[in-house]
Amino acid sequence: MSPRQLTMMGLGSAIGAGLFIGSGAGIQAAGPAVLISYLVAGTLIIIVMWALGEMAAANPNSGAFSVYTGKALGGVAGATVGWLWWAQLVVVIAAEALGAAGLLATVFPVLPVWLMALVFMALFTAINLTGVRNFGEFEFWFALLKVAAIVAFLLVGAALLLGWIPGVTSPGLAHFALGTGFAPHGMAGIATGLFVVAFAFGGTEIVSVAAAETRDPERSVARAVRTVVWRILVFYIGSIFVIAAVIPADSPELKSPFAGVLDIAGLPGAAAVITLVAVVALLSALNANLYGASRMIFSLAERREAPLALTALTKARVPAVAVASSVAFGFVATVLELLFPDHVLPLLLNFVGSTCLIVWGSALVSQIVLRRRADAEGSPLPLRMAGFPWLSGFGIALLAAIFAVGLTGADSRVQLLSTFALVAVIALGCWLRRRSLRAQTAPTI
């Protein structure tokens, strides 16, 4: 994979349903004050990306933060983080396939939603099996299309707010007036928005996974971290500012916020176009998540934390069994969701909804441990995170604050406790497996 592909993958994996669809839910929860949620989560993801970049440049590995956590905190912790991230991705793969199919059906209702979802998963399985270079190129153009669409959206939004569109009255910044209009649900709304935003930023960590299959990873990772971080903030903060300024927090148009803004701007056909872009965004994220899930479970298998059959490679150096195993769960979840609508996926997503927060926390703690270890040993690091250890500590403090705030809200508390329960079950399973392997390899007397 080339450096440009790695950079666009990191950017594209974070620009998905969380922005094109989920941003509306964030504004409904917090009003324009959701910008505070984005700034807090954005600051955290910048710190996490720098920490991951330092570790990935020093040790490019498809297991990424799972491997780093294992080195810093022990094998059980590393395996737990790896399986947790894999579980999140395979659930999200099904959600993205169904979401893309549902959106496409609103524009071109030629096939049933269930059939389109299955076709999408089959198509991207085939793409992932062709080799990392083809996957990277496909993801590059997908991400580029999303970036171009967001830039065009920001230009239209600026013209609308400045009153430059003939025949359309500018809403100005009335929604940002301090008081109940800016934060209609107070701190509770901002807290709820934090979890929506954190889920939206999930996916950027895939850069550390892909580093293992990138040319010149030391330079590529540093470049990807620098460019992905500021571009995500500009695109996210800019888009949310425009949407919150144009559409009231109680408007039904927030179900499809980008289309809602373009409808208000009076651009004919633009809503259909942005819906198609949202479909592309979901499919791009599906593509990247399938890649990330397959590489993570491949790495777990290499470390004997998963069945060894998952280490099988094709001539193109693709872990085909790992790819098939990762997408298989998506097929099963999609079928179950079709049999029991609005029951299966919401339940699964509730369990993995806070997974990215656990992964980010493990990355920050691991970076502190491994950085201190490297400095004590005098080991050179190709990329060093600035402001160490204060910046890493600040990231952990931010994360702790998000957890604390989340436990005060009814919905977020259920999500957090569900994720904690899942972590405990996975950790127990990993501990039992390692104990079993030790017993098998122990010398007999």
Describe what you observe in this structure:
The model has no long low-confidence stretch (mean pLDDT about 85). The chain has about 450 residues and is mainly alpha-helical. It is about 75% helix and about 0% strand. It has 18 helices and no strands. It starts with a helix and ends with a helix. Helix 4 packs parallel to helix 9, helix 7 packs across helix 13 and helix 7 packs antiparallel against helix 14. The longest helix is centred in the first third of the chain and has 33 residues.
Put simply, the count of helices is: 18
Estimate the helix proportion, in percent.
over 70%
Radius of gyration: 22 Å
The fraction of residues assigned to DSSP E strands is under 5%
Q: Can you summarize the main beta sheet?
A: none
- State the end-to-end distance: 50 Å
Order of helices and strands: HHHHHHHHHHHHHHHHHH
Number of strands: 0
The average pLDDT value, as a whole number, equals 84
- Which structural class is indicated by helix and strand composition? mainly alpha
The dominant shape is: globular
- Outline the low-pLDDT stretches: none
